[in-house]
Structures are given as structure tokens and as C-alpha cells.
Amino acid sequence: MSLADFLSSLQSLQDEASEAFAKVSSQQSLEDARVRFLGAKNGALRQIQKQLGKLDKDEKPQAGQKLNEVKRSLSAGLERATEALADAQSATTGPPADPTLPGEPLRLGHIHPITQTMDHLKEIMGRMGFETAEGPEVEDPWHNFVALNIPEDHPARDPLDNFYLATADAVAGEADSQLMRSQTSTVQIRVMENRQPPIRIVSLGRVYRPDAPDATHFPMFHQMEGLMVDRQVTMANLKTVLRVFANNYLGSDVQIRFRPSFFPFTEPSVEVDFLWNDQWIEFGGAGMVDPAVLSAVGYDPETVSGFAFGLGVERLCMRRHNITDIRDLYSGDMRFLSQF
Ligand code: DAH
Predict the structure, then answer these.
(1) From ligand 1's centre to the CA of 285, what distance in Å?
(2) In a domain, 244, yes or no
(3) Residue 186's domain is classified under what CATH number?
């Protein structure tokens, strides 16, 4: 390589570099330009520097001087580009943040009133020795109906009163099609199928029924199911447990009434009412587990007996907090929800 070639390649490098630095518009393009021209290993300047050794001895001083000049100029160009980029960025983002300013208050989330209620109910029942059990929300007809002594022609199985699921191999509403559970009594069956007495459980969770929403109805709501099975469990045990529960959750002055009723899975059956603003309001059902249900899960009704109950969680929560419209619980309105 001749000295002239060496010098002219330095010159064109300098021209190229100053053009590239002028075009820098982002951190990435700045870094790309730095590596391309000033990279210590493979940068363009470094490549030319490697040719220095091939020049004649007496050409080297001049070549070296020019090399240093271009190097300084490139470094200065890089510095200017860096500053220009920083200026451009602060022009679009405004002045730097002031760390001494007070922060924006964070809005803290909190637990939904129904979840709070369920936690509270579990805690009260836990103190009476009832552990918590869970079951799926998508159920089969066996657990939602058949094992609970609800025969195929029972009105409770009407497709208009249930959310049946149309799946690949089932038509909605047919005898074998799955559904969103309409009651937590399903969990009674699941627990008894898997365990032997003595049993004392509650199960709290969502249930689904195609009801038009109004002040007291919503197509999804929650129930607390209770089940106790052992030798010699009686209706007196049931009434005591529900009384103690109600006194704990609704206050020692709560009035409770058991009204004769009918459920396919209990015999005898009662409906459970609480006095609320001088009116008896139904909160759920209860009774002694029907021997047919005990047999369906393989228990011997001659040796064990049990009681069961199912209470509406929303209604309990509404009575305790004086909420008059169930829809308020599910409107997602923070003005309502933030009160709990
Ligand atoms: N599953 C009933 C319903 O949703 C409520 C119920 C009644 C549950 C009696 C029970 C019971 O465990 O024994 O209407």
C-alpha cells in the first residue's frame, strides 16, 4: 500500500464517519456507529491502522500523524453525537424527574366482599370442627342430580333451569351432558365418595342458574354447603350448628326459624329462615341426609346418619351489611366495593 492510498482511505473514513454520526437518532444507531468506526477489534479505523506496518519507514511519521488526527476527530464526532442524542431525548421527555416530589398515591386493591364473607364463614365453621372441601364448577349429572336422589324426570333438571354445556360428544340438556353446577350439594357426594365417616365439612363456592338478575337474583351466586356424617347424628345437632353459626355471623339476637320442606336428598327437610327487618327471609335448606344418598355413595344407612345444609352466601352477606340489591355486589362499581 502506498502512502497516498493510506492517507486517502483515512480521509474517506473521516467523511463517512461524520456523515454517520450526524444521522444518529437512537441509542442503537449511536452504538452501531461507534462499533463500526471506532470498535477496538474490527472498527474501520483499526483496520486501516493495521496497514501502517506495510508502509516504508520514512512514510510512517506522516501516516501516523494523520491517523491520530482522524482518531481524535472521530472521537470528538462520537462525543458530539452522544450529546446531541441526549439533548433530543430530553426535549421530548421534558425536564428530568424531580426525585424530591411526593409520589402519586397507589390505589390498593382489596378482597371482594363475597370472598371476605366466605373467609369469615369458613372461619366460624372451622371453629366448630368443619373443614373446607372443594369441588368443580363444571359438573356431571351424577354429582349434581342422580346421587342426590334427583331422578331424570325431576323439574330441577329442566334445561331451562340449568346451564348445560354442549360438548363435543354431548348435546346440551341430554341425560349425560355436563352442566355448571346448580348447587354445592355436589360436593357432599364428592366428599362421601372419597372418604369414610366421621365427616364434618363445609364447601363454599359458585353456583349457576339461568335467573334474570333482580334485587335478589343473579345467574351466578355462592352457597355454603355443610355436611356432617357420623354415628347418631340428629336433627338436634343440625339445629344447634345452624344456631351457633347464625349467632356468630349475624349476632346473638338473630332469630332463626326451621320450616318443614322437601328436598330429594334430605328426609326430613327444612327451610331455614332468618328474621330480617321484621320479615322472615329464607336463607337456604337443610335436613337429614336421605338414606338413598348415603347408599348411593356406598355408606350403610343403618350405621351412620348425617345432616346437610345449603345457605346462600350473598344473602348472609347482604343481611349482615344491610345491602339491599345483590347486583351491587357484581357491578364492579368501586364506590360500592371500596366500602368493604
Ligand atoms: N341444594 C339446595 C338448593 O340449592 C339447598 C340445600 C337444601 C342444601 C337442603 C342441602 C340441604 O344440603 O340439605 O336449593
Answers:
(1) 5
(2) yes
(3) 3.30.930.10
